[in-house]
Amino acid sequence: MSYKERVVVLVDMDCFYCQVEEQLDPSLNGKPIAVVQYNTWRGGGIIAVNYPARERGVTRHMRGDEAKEKCPDIILARVPEVRGKADLTKYREAGKRVAEVLQKFTPILERASVDEAYLDITEAAKARILRDCNQLQVENLKNTFVVGYDIQDFLHNVTNNAEYFEDNCRLAMGALIAEEIRAEVFAKTGYKCSAGIAHNKILAKLVCGLHKPNKQTILPHESVPALYEEIPIKKVSGLGGKFGSTLTDQLKISKMSELIKFTEKELVKLFDEKTGKWLYNIARGIDYEQVTPRLISKSIGCCKKFPGKSALTSAESVEHWVNELTSEISERMEKDAQENNRRAKQIVLHFTQTVNERDVSNSRTLPLNSYEQHRIAHICLEALKKILSQARCSSPVERNFNTSKNLEESECSDESIKSNEPATTLIPNSSEELNVLDEWEQNNLDSLKTCPDCKKTILQSEFESHIDYHYALNIVKEEAHLYKRKSIESNTMTRASGESSNHLRNTKRKCGDMKSIEKFLCSDNELNEGNSELCPECNKRIKFEDIISHMDYHTAKKLHLEINQQPSASSISDKTSIKSKNKRKKDVKNMGSIVSFLNNKR
DNA sequence: CATTCTGCAAGC
DNA sequence: GCTTGCAGA
Ligand SMILES: Nc1ncnc2c1ncn2[C@H]1C[C@H](O)[C@@H](COP(=O)(O)OP(=O)(O)OP(=O)(O)O)O1
Ligand SMILES: [Mn+2]
Ligand SMILES: [Mn+2]
Description:
nucleus, alpha/beta, metal-binding, DNA-binding, 22 strands, zinc, binds 2'-deoxyadenosine 5'-triphosphate, DNA-directed DNA polymerase activity, binds manganese (II) ion, DNA repair
């Protein structure tokens, strides 16, 4: 498939945490604001800045005090503190509301962070070109910029010679849909966002930021070389860190356009096969990375740092913070279990200490059989003691802790807790961290039912959505003439389902995030190119004989959404999982004081 | 003394 | 399978 085939959109909320705060307190409207976490030390650390405050020179990473100097009338909103730590719940929930709106436009949606998501709307754009090319007018793309073009000229080209400019025509239609997506996000949530529209993820991400806030940008492929002349290498996703620095230093280049000088062979030789080829393609505006459908996180974690003198120095304090962190984890995991029908099977405990000026970190994957706070805490504390007692103690120095857990891939999930505390006395600058991580298991205790309409055997947990499916299908049959197939990509979530599957950890299987209706439709295994094709709407493999009814299903879903505007709030997901097993023992040196504290205590 | 997250892949 | 490091919001 051509590198110009797809229409990929990256939607990113504008100064997201600030917008969340502005909506909660409308008196902040129009004023310069920033969001800080903690405020006792130099006014707290700034993690989000709204646009009026940016004009005044305030940036992320500044301290609250510094922001006040730059902009005396700035309002500093504070991240809530619960259990003595920052609590990001309200931002996660706001992000979830946004994702629920985006999800109505396509199931090929990948949440990339709390405030952004990639959407592959190739099929929707193609379908709409067949009937709505006349809508590609400036008045329908009022918030759209096109790199390298005046929008008027760009639209003129694609509408007058749609075949010759078919790739740009798809991008233009993608932008029209993106305008609608963004309008819907604002209508449903009150939040403004920006978007990038391009043939791949890397470029969509890159151009989303060119016209913020509340605007969107198209990048036609032929505009890549000129754009790259202006783009520092570190601005491209994946090149913002050490690897990007290696490029600028070793290759003596600074702009993306300079990368094109190198042959694929040279790049493969300089780095490895995978990296070299990737870089060679990126230099030409080519990126084949798929938008991987994923609506919910694979891991749940929390952590706390204890910088400098606040480093934890007693067993009691360590125990206290492990309790606080496991309490938050327990609460969030329980909620996740209700919403997503999955359970973590493992937890990862992680902590770091500062020993002789150097960070030493440890982590252990531990089995998790219960979400009860005290049980999780017990598991973590036992592991912690074991690790520290095996460490060679001699010179007592500093430490800090932190814990975290993660959810697992398709079917599993984890949690993580992070805390960070200094353990011993002495040295003023110390820190530690603890982490916990787990995987999930899905509940297999589903009973079977027979559908009264189609007589198929289905899981109890999928019964409701299965009936919804018949309901929607019937309406479609009656009113199909009102709705063209493939008009707008949209998709509602279905109810949560149980379902079990097997270990899919690390296996690339799209079925992991499938909704129950889709699972029902895709229940046959053994699908291959000889007996099936990929659905243009959802990219799932469908048997030839089922493709017509499968497309009806998509139409039904769209219609159902309009009829019943109540999107059911749960997604499905998961299942199985695995694991348990734990770890090995690694020695850590210089773990003096905390070890003795722990040993003394128990 | 930026902090609190999340995802991915390499290397063992 | 597990730990670690990198990259990003
Ligand atoms: N380094 C960080 N540490 C903690 N939270 C962060 C960090 N970076 C970003 N966040 C949070 C706060 C942001 O509002 C939110 C989304 O990040 P991001 O999209 O990069 O910026 P933003 O939404 O604040 O502004 P922009 O309008 O430029 O997108 O994630
Ligand atoms: Mn943002
Ligand atoms: Mn973002």
